[in-house]
Amino acid sequence: MTLDPVLLTLDLIGTFAFALNGALVAIRLANVDIIGVLTLGTVTAVGGGIVRDLMIGDTPPATFSDWRYLAVAALGSMVAFVLGSRLDRLTMPITVLDAAGLSLFAVTGAHKAVEFGLGPVQAIILGAVTGVGGGTIRDMMLRQVPTVLRQELYAIPALAAAALVVLVPSFGWGLFVPVTAALICFTWRMVAVVLDLHAPKPLRAPHHED
């Protein structure tokens, strides 16, 4: 199997993971019906990729030119719809799926940006955008502060994975670089969740009582 088909497979796995995650979040946080579950699951799964493709000029976006993306997103959403009553109380499975999708999308997003001739900085940013974009759109639709802005280390692991894909020469190494990058992002994200690690926050001004 060549690198491109493998990256496509990783992209589809990430799509499924994010769709399942997005739908489960919707079930847990909002009183939505089957259309709401499908919509929020699909937006989570493909939103970041659509933003990336539009920014690099790949039109129509892969989501609409390759039927597999929407099919996999719908499948993940429906799995969540069917099993939601069993899974909606389980925080950790949702978090694991989110970390998996974040890792895979950061890698494939950065790789695609490089293929379209973008510079290293732009490719790294778009890799992270691919990873966090769908969840950000979903959170905004649910009127929540996006996860990337409020939870444990989230965007930083995605940026690190994208940087590894962009900056480390992969010739002769096969899948070592993208797989390693995804594993680093996933592990970093999960360690941050378990240990409750956060990115630095600004110092708050002292509260003065009148």
UniProtKB/TrEMBL annotation:
Membrane topology, from the record: Multi-pass membrane protein
Keyword Membrane assigned: yes
InterPro entries xrefs: Gly_transporter
Location in the cell: Cell membrane
Domain Glycine transporter, chain residue ranges per copy: 9-83, 96-168
Keywords noted in UniProt: Cell membrane, Membrane, Transmembrane, Transmembrane helix
Transmembrane segments: 6-27, 34-55, 67-84, 120-141, 153-173
Source organism, top-level taxon: Bacteria
Signal peptide per UniProt: none
Pfam families with a match to the protein in the record: Gly_transporter
Family indicated by similarity: Belongs to the UPF0126 family.
PANTHER family associated with the record: INNER MEMBRANE PROTEIN (PTHR30506), UPF0126 INNER MEMBRANE PROTEIN YADS-RELATED (PTHR30506:SF3)
Name of the protein described by the UniProt record: Trimeric intracellular cation channel family protein
Annotated source species: Nocardioides yefusunii
Lineage, top ranks: Bacteria, Bacillati, Actinomycetota, Actinomycetes, Propionibacteriales
